[in-house]
Amino acid sequence: SEAILTTGEKDLGTAVVDIGAGICDIIVYVDGGIAFTSVIPFGGFHITSDLSIGLKTTIETAEVLKKRYGHTNVDAIDPTEKIEIPSISGRPSRSLFRQELVEIMEPRVREILEMIDHELVRSGFKSYLAGGVILTGGTSLLSGIERLAEEVFQLSVSRAKPAGLSGLTDKVSSPEYATAIG
After folding, report:
1. Which of 5, 106, 140, 143 lies 20 to 30 Å from 79, alpha-carbon distance?
2. What is the pTM of this model?
3. What residues contact 153, with CB distance under 8 A and at least 6 apart?
C-alpha cells in the first residue's frame, strides 16, 4: 500500500488486496490509518494448479497458458477460439477451445474473491470503503478480474501498480512488484 496508495485514498477508506502466487494480503485503511489486515492462503498458484490438473499439463505450461490466455469471465471469450497446449514427455501437442481454460479458471478466481470479501465483511469496515478496493500483485493482471471483483465485492475496484519510481521503472512498474517496491 505504501507504493500504490495516496494519502487521500487512505483517508477516504480503501482496501488494498495483493493477490500473489500463494497468498492474498489484505489491508484496510480508514481515516488515514490501518484499520484491518488479513491473509488468505490462496493465490495465483492455486489457479495454475487447477489448470495443470484440468488440462493435464505441467505447472510451467499451465502458468504460461494462464498468463497468455486466461480470463475471469467465460462469457467474454469467443467460443470458437482455439489455443495450443505444447507437447510434454514426448506426447504430441494438442489444441482446445480457450473457453475450456477459462471454465477452469473462473470458479477458482471467484472463490478467492469471495474469501477476500468474507474478510472485508469480517473486518467491520467494508461499508467505510468509499475508495473501494485496489487490486495489486501478479494475479491482479488476469483479464477481467476487476469486473468480477466488482461483482463479488459490490464496491468499485481498480488495479494499481507502484508509482513514484525512478531508475529501472520499466522493469518494476507492474502490480506484481508492488510489495517489493513498498
Report:
1. 140
2. 0.88
3. 113, 116, 117, 120, 132, 133
